[in-house]
Amino acid sequence: MTKIVFVDDDTLVREALMALTRDAFPQHTIWGSGGEWAEIARWLSPAPTLVILDLVLGQHSGLAVMESFRHYPSRFLLMSAFYRPALLEQGKALGAQGFVAKSATPEVFWQAIRTVLAGEDFWPPLAWTSASSGKILAPVDRRIIGLVAAGLTNSEIGRRCYLAPGTVRNRLARLMEEWGARNRAQMVRLAIEGGWLDDD
After folding, report:
1. Which residues is 54 bridged to in the sheet?
2. Where along the chain do the CATH 1.10.10.10 domains lie?
3. What's the average model confidence in pLDDT over 40-57?
4. Cα separation of 113 and 68, whole Å?
5. Average pLDDT in the 39-63 region?
6. What is the tens place of the pLDDT at every residue in 65-115?
7. Which pLDDT band, with edges at 50, 70 and 90, does 55 fall under?
8. Statement: residue 58 has pLDDT above 80
9. Architecture of 3-124 per CATH?
10. How far apart are CA 77 and CA 182, in angstroms?
11. Beta-sheet pairing, 3-7 with 75-80
């Protein structure tokens, strides 16, 4: 029987995904592990058929888990709340077979599982990637940057996107760090140069 293990330190997300996956794939055995190393090692032994692995696990990196268990015959499907091109490239190099965003629809998530279980790769479509910059940007981040370009504050952006101001601030900080932008203005300029925004 196919054994699928979710590795995610967010208990609510992990349990919800496990429940949905059990309903969609009743023929498979579904287990879950938090982000503690001993717990991960316990659930990954014996080696499962598929490991659905969060890229960020509290104090640990999902890539560190892959590095430690890459000798296993398991297939690895990466997931994250954010698109992180550098981490995805590292995951590919370590042998990951795919990536699915936590914001994906259930149908996309199930397709990712079916594809990777079939021995094929499942990576974000090229539509997510700016051809000129190579950056990957989630739709909500593109909208946030567009509102930054329009001069809105974090609170105003949060109201438009149904997000807390702190969430907006954290997403912008993460994007600026990934893109090497020193401030909001430079981040907007990089988005325009990358083809994400029109230079009005």
Report:
1. 79
2. 139-193
3. 91
4. 22
5. 88
6. 999 998 889 999 999 876 666 677 788 889 999 998 887 788 889 999 999
7. confident
8. no
9. 3-Layer(aba) Sandwich (3.40)
10. 33
11. unpaired
Helix-strand-coil percent breakdown of the chain, rounded to 5?
50, 15, 35
Residues 40, 88 contacting (CB under 8 angstroms) = no
Q: Where in the chain is the domain with CATH 3.40.50.2300?
A: 3-124
Dist. CA 80–CA 174, nearest whole Å: 13
Contact 98, 52 (CB under 8 A): no
Q: Is the pLDDT of residue 9 over 70?
A: yes
- What integer is the mean pLDDT of 10-18? 92
Q: Residue 161: which residues within 8 A CB-CB, separation 6 or more?
A: 140, 143, 144, 147, 168
46: Cβ contacts below 8 Å, ≥ 6 apart: none
Yes or no: say if 192 and 184 are a contact pair by the CB < 8 Å rule: no
Residue 61 binned pLDDT confidence (cut-offs 50, 70, 90)? confident
**DSSP summary character for residue 122:** B
Cα separations in angstroms, 78 against 5, 14, 178: 12, 13, 19
CA atoms within 13 A on the CB side of 17: 30
Question: CB-based burial of residue 156 (10 Å sphere; 0-12 exposed, 13-18 middle, 19+ buried)?
Answer: middle
For residue 136, the cross-strand partners are: 129
**Domain 139-193 classification at class level:** mainly alpha
